[in-house]
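Q: Convert this sequence to structure tokens.
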Amino acid sequence: MDERVWSDELLQFFKALADANRLKIVGLLARQPLSVEQMAEMLGLASSTVSHHLTKLAEAGLVSARAEGYYSIYRLEIQVLEGMARRLLSQESLPAAASDVDTEAYDRKVLKNYMLPDGSFKQLPSQVKKMEVVLRYMVREFEPGVRYTEKQVNEILGRFNEDTARIRRALVDGGYMQRQGGGGEYWRVEE
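A:
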């Protein structure tokens, strides 16, 4: 590769990472793909600011987006990052860049918007990302390693919402719980 081209790419790479918030975004995306809305809440920034930072990172080839419903879900292009910074950064250390970020902020916001004071849900979210937050919250009621009958599962889930069949299906389909064929025993999937 021409040294000038390499130098320009390297300069663009370091410029893209020369901002504390962009480093935090890289740290967050190293953990999992996220939407602008999720990152904005976690970082305490406006969505437009996060979008601006994502544009800079995308120009350097470090992030890409895919459409998912109403959202664009961003992911870290780790191959590009490793190729440009093999000796400077490692995939294991990147999440530390977001160590002071409140990664639970989005979940708390979603729960606050859907949960009633008694701990039940006024309705279940229709958006997948928000429903995942609710499912992660509900699955905490099940002890790891314990097998539950469908009746026991319904009793636990009924405290949250009357549509226990939908929630059970979503917990299984989402990989939060497993079940023995035909609606037998249910158990929480180990994280």
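The two ends are 44 Å apart (CA to CA).
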